[in-house]
């Protein structure tokens, strides 16, 4: 019997790694404010910018519209941390 492999992606810099997801705005620009959820057992770490948070608020959750606006990008966990070092944390959000 094979076990289900953990959620890994292959990073060109860091090899097979766990991943986090970041909204496209945080990928493209620096010095944005962001909100973040830390990784859980079966949930990746997640971060999104102020603009996304406004859509999230008005949609009252990650609906299709909110997710389309965020255009989530996968980053390995190391790249994820490095990417967010260029941004400013506004608030940690509890996962639901
Ligand atoms: Zn965003
Ligand atoms: Zn990486």
Q: Which ligands are bound? A: zinc ion
Low-confidence stretches: none
- End-to-end separation in angstroms reads 32 Å
Total tally of structural domains: 1
- How many helices? The count is 4
Give the amount of beta strand, in percent: 25-35%
Describe the protein.
The chain has 96 residues and is α/β, with parallel strands linked by helices. The protein has one domain (21-92). It has four helices and six strands, in the order E-E-H-E-E-H-H-E-H-E. It has helices spanning 24-28, 50-59, 64-70, 77-84, and strands spanning 8-11, 15-22, 33-37, 45-49, 73-76, 88-92. Strands 1, 2, 3, 4, 5 and 6 form a six-stranded mixed β-sheet that branches. The longest helix is centred in the middle third of the chain and has 10 residues, at 50-59. The radius of gyration is 14 Å and the shape is globular. Bound molecules: zinc ion (2 copies). One zinc ion (ZN) binds at residues 23, 25-26, 48-49, 51-52, 70.
Summary?
This protein is an alpha/beta fold and 96 residues long. 31% of the residues lie in helices and 32% in strands.
Q: What key attributes describe this structure?
A:
alpha/beta; six-stranded mixed β-sheet; 96 residues; 32% strand; 4 helices; single chain
Topology (elements, then pairings):
Layout: E1 8-11, E2 15-22, H1 24-28, E3 33-37, E4 45-49, H2 50-59, H3 64-70, E5 73-76, H4 77-84, E6 88-92
Parallel strand pairs: 2-4, 3-6
Antiparallel strand pairs: 1-2, 2-5, 3-4
Helix pairs in contact: 2-3
Bound molecules: zinc ion (ZN) (2 copies).
One zinc ion (ZN) is lined by residues 11, 13-14, 17, 76, 78-79.
């Amino acid at each position: 019997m094979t076990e289900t492999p953990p959620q890994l992606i292959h990073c060109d810099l860091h090899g097979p790694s766990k991943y986090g997801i970041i909204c496209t705005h945080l990928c493209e620009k620096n010095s944005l404010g962001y909100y973040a959820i830390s990784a859980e057992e079966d949930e990746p770490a997640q971060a999104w910018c102020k603009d996304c948070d406004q859509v999230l608020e008005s949609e009252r959750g990650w609906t299709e519209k909110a997710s389309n606006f965020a255009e989530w990008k996968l980053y390995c966990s190391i790249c994820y941390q490095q990417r967010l070092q260029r941004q400013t944390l506004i608030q940690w959000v509890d996962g639901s």
